[in-house]
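Tutorial, part two.
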Amino acid sequence: RIYKPDLEERAVYYNIFSSQIPGNLTPFFWDDSRWQKEVDKLAASQFTHIYFYLWSNEVYFPKSSENFIENNRQLHEHLKNMIDYAHKRGLKVVYGFTPNMIPNDIFNANKVLLQTEGPYSAFPTINPMVTQAFSYNGQTWNGAMDLMRDIYSNQLEWFKNADGFWIWSYDPGGCFSDYCKQHQTEILMNQIKNFTQIIDTKNSSSKIYISTWPIWYLEGLYGLNYRSQFLDSLHSYFSSNINRVTITDSIEIPDSTLALAKQKGFKTNGFIYTLNIENEYPFFSPFMQNFGSAISYGNQMSVNGMHLHTVEAGSKFPTYFFGSRYLFNKSS
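Running the prediction step on this input gives:
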């Protein structure tokens, strides 16, 4: 008997934190050997993809005194090597980033000009609509997008061998000043166009992943309704190769963007966040009930894949293994 997986894309998403979590609990401290062991276990569990996300303090940017440090260099070297090893084991890798989140030192030096308004303004996220020039340590950028392109072009060069690139525009990220609130689709599309162009210079055969988490929350918070317009604009931009694009969002929120994105012809991938929320809880918990409800919602939304969230990855592998069985066979 030949078994075909129920979901074509089955991933673990490593949300890599660099502080407050000791030892090997977080992949920030993993060397090549530790990553190879992790990849081997993922391959044996029949996952197809590895996703990873780096925060702004982990960006290895030569023009940031605070970020251009040995710990960040080693992190990038190990992740680059992990991508190559994952390919040898038959897995694909996706790198995630937030375009308007920048190193703290550059942000603090230009905070009055660049700071955003909104629920994520506590992070070093900048207003992407700023066009005035600004400087730091003798370097000048001609507006926010010039800096964003500079930082993440460098990042994308590091990870150009990845199979996909995942643009997270919110949480953190986003801009909700009075002007930004009324131009969300324009802002999102400007970021996607700019960074797709850069991605194409690094790896034109790669896939593009677009996170719409948590537009459902932001629309309610600000009384907006733009997700359909945004998806239509996105579809138009990628119309010649719509299968290149995957929309990601929560599989645990019935009002997420996944169902609408599927209706509009996109591939979709559901995010199971509650398996390892960002509360620094280091111990294993099976969360079997979460898989059952996620699979139920996934069936309703006809998603193409799902990804399991992890922070304290060093102690959570049994959770992924249980999850891998559900993703391979929904009736597990």
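DSSP finds twelve helices and ten strands in the chain. In part three we will examine how such features are distributed along the chain.
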